[in-house]
Amino acid sequence: MNWRQDAACREEDPDLFFPVGTTGPAVTQTEDAKSVCRRCPVMEQCLRWAMNSGQEYGVWGATSEKDRQAIRAGRRQYATSAH
């Protein structure tokens, strides 16, 4: 089954999930997009897809670009310390 068929964002304007910038109105827009994600039944699958496919821009699985960068950095740190 394609998880995208059940995504809450299907009924939203796609531009909501791609704020321009990281300050001012973009902060509110990012939080609005994340609130859609938080009520989505496939939020985890969306985030997994975004991480696995290297999505650098937009809100995916209730995470912003900065959130995903932090997750990636944490994974690298864990991989380095585990060896």
TrEMBL record:
- Residue span(s) of domain 4Fe-4S Wbl-type: 8-70
Query: How far does the signal peptide extend, from start to end residue?
Result: none
Q: Where in the cell is it found?
A: Cytoplasm
Query: Per its UniProt entry, which superkingdom is the organism in?
Result: Bacteria
Task: Tell me, in a sentence or two, what this protein's role is.
Answer: Acts as a transcriptional regulator. Probably redox-responsive. The apo- but not holo-form probably binds DNA.
Question: Which UniProt keyword terms apply here?
Answer: 4Fe-4S, Cytoplasm, Disulfide bond, DNA-binding, Iron, Iron-sulfur, Metal-binding, Transcription, Transcription regulation
Q: How is it modified after translation?
A: The Fe-S cluster can be nitrosylated by nitric oxide (NO).
Q: How is the cofactor bound?
A: Binds 1 [4Fe-4S] cluster per subunit. Following nitrosylation of the [4Fe-4S] cluster binds 1 [4Fe-8(NO)] cluster per subunit.
HAMAP family listed in its UniProt record: WhiB
Annotated [4Fe-4S] cluster binding lies at C9, C37, C40, C46
Q: Which InterPro entries match?
A: 4FE4S_WBL, Whib
Give the family from UniProt: Belongs to the WhiB family.
Q: Which GO terms of the cellular component aspect does the record hold?
A: cytoplasm
Q: Which cofactor does it need?
A: [4Fe-4S] cluster
Output the PANTHER family linked to this UniProt entry.
Answer: TRANSCRIPTIONAL REGULATOR WHIB1, TRANSCRIPTIONAL REGULATOR WHID-RELATED
- What protein is this chain from? Transcriptional regulator WhiB
Q: Assign the protein's first listed, main location to one coarse class.
A: cytoplasm
Q: Which GO terms describe its biological process?
A: cell redox homeostasis; negative regulation of DNA-templated transcription
Q: What gene name does this entry carry?
A: whiB
The molecular function terms of the Gene Ontology recorded here are: 4 iron, 4 sulfur cluster binding; dinitrosyl-iron complex binding; DNA binding; metal ion binding; protein-disulfide reductase [NAD(P)H] activity
